[in-house]
Design goal:
Number of strands: 7
Radius of gyration: 26 Å
Shape: elongated
CATH architecture of the domain at 47-130: 2-Layer Sandwich
Largest sheet: 5 strands, mixed
CATH topology of the domain at 47-130: Nucleotidyltransferase, domain 5
CATH class of the domain at 47-130: Alpha Beta
Number of helices: 3
Strand content: 15-25%
Distance between the termini: 79 Å
Structural class: alpha/beta
Helix content: 25-40%
């Protein structure tokens, strides 16, 4: 009685497990990229211990060290700022303006922007970076 054992390896390679992993990674990166709200301007913000999150419609106003003003990623002049800001918040029920002012911007400019928001009856938040301990 001669029994033969078959020790041959299967030469076929199944790609299904590899495609499953790649598909899961693709879904993961697509979902996590929607949670990130990139700030197009690289500003050095002042530090603060308080943290507030905003759930309403946000309009971003940025001031650079060179006194360049941005609404979102669009550069505007200081004179155009109230007009463009009022256009941005016109359709929102309860908008919030997030002010991103660099560390070296004079406080007078920050107060001027806050006065514009106060005249428009809009809530304003000054963006800061967390304090490193």
């Amino acid at each position: 009685m001669a029994l033969r054992q078959s020790n041959k390896a299967n030469p076929n390679f199944s790609m299904s497990s590899l495609t499953d992993i790649i598909f899961l990674l693709l879904i993961f990166f697509m979902l996590t990229s929607t949670f990130v709200t990139p700030n197009a301007l690289n500003l050095l913000l002042p530090s603060s211990n308080s943290q507030v999150t905003v759930e309403k419609k946000r309009v971003s106003v940025s001031i650079t060290d060179n006194m360049e003003f941005y609404v979102g990623t669009k550069q505007v002049t200081e004179e155009e700022l109230p007009i463009i800001l009022s256009e941005q918040i016109a359709d929102a029920a309860d908008p919030t303006v997030v002010l991103n002012a660099e560390k070296n911007v004079p406080i007078e400019k920050v107060v001027d922007i806050m006065n514009i928001a106060n005249e428009l009856k809009v809530q304003m938040i000054l963006a800061t970076r967390p304090v490193k301990e």
